[in-house]
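Researcher: For the record, we're logging two predictions in this thread. I'll number them. Prediction 1 follows.
Model: Prediction 1, sequence and structure:
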Amino acid sequence: MSSPISQSAKDWDKRYSEAESVWSLEPNQFVAAELFELPVGKMVDIAGGEGRNALAFANLGWKVENVEFSAVALEKFKARAKAAGLSQLCSSNLSDAQSAKFAFQPSLVLIAYLQIPFAELEKTLDNALSQMPHGTLFGVFHARRNLREGFGGPQSIEVLPSVEQLCDWAERKGLDALIEERFREVKTPAGVRQAIDLTLKVSR
């Protein structure tokens, strides 16, 4: 994958090697609010990084698969799963998001903050749906509007999806999708700022 925000596996391996935790240890707030009440099943976390969301589901009893193209991130994920006594519920898949073949048929697919050009994101979404005949697909992204009106996230419009892009994709696929802009508070040394995210929820 190539984009203005350094999407090579080598670059991400370096980033994951240089910090104990690149991302928060807690699951994303929208993921927790929208999905934790679903019946326990099998979930695939696409571009799951160090596994903060996948591990949260495993802790609830889900069988989880972390699809990630950084080998360093997956090693961290496996170490954290072992430390938490969750290894039997957790598997890793070193693959690109657009073409990954899942180890099992999931009832939930999660894509959290995979910020890539929209043509590549479409391929990722299509690939996920092709392997999930029934269940829930949930995505959360830094929104395009965040670039001018929000805080943080990538500073390239190319990798920031818009409501219109996701609505058009869902319509072309004949999907009943809920697409919303969401506001998230971010604590900074200068005070609390507001980020604008975009969520996608498809149930089949």
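Researcher: Logged. Prediction 2.
Model: Prediction 2, sequence and structure:
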Amino acid sequence: MLRVNNLKISFDDNHVLDGFNLQLESGDIFALLGDSGSGKSSALRFIAGLENAQLGSVALDGNNLSDGGSHSVKPELREVGMVFQDYALFPHMTVFQNISFGISHLSKKEKITKVQSLLDLISLEGIEKKYPHQLSGGEQQRVSLARSLATSPKLLLLDEPFSSLDKSNRDQLVREVRDILKKAGVTSILVTHDEAEANTFADKIGKIEKKQLLIS
């Protein structure tokens, strides 16, 4: 489903990754661990098509997205969604408008149906008219997740999405988001520095050590 081969990333004289390889099957939930500066987020951004590398290829469902460290498919055409640490919701938009932002090509009826199904999936029915500031941090992150799922991505990338929450809310949300992704059947990669979080969230876990990915 996802194949990342021989990824090498350097910043000036700082060699971050050298020989990063990853294979995931459809529906896998994978956690990527590593120390600060180990290249976790850089690997994620390369898979998303947001950063180049010195070397490496990405294929999704047999389609080559990147090769030789550069990208042949633009980020918005990759069928890859992203969830960020800071939620990245538009403050001036309602929940409905945020979730439907990436599906503007659909009819009004189709958008309503899609948003309602996603709110049901994330267990936040009836909040479509609220604004982000009216929601808790955990609710905002679930809305961010729903927005990413609205475009029906084949792969979802989550870059430390729980790190800004306090521990009690974080532990609950980690379990909830895992359940949501399992129900949706979306192949996912979580970047985190928290080993307990990775164990709760993922089916498979890898850790970057000595510039390479080791999978346990």
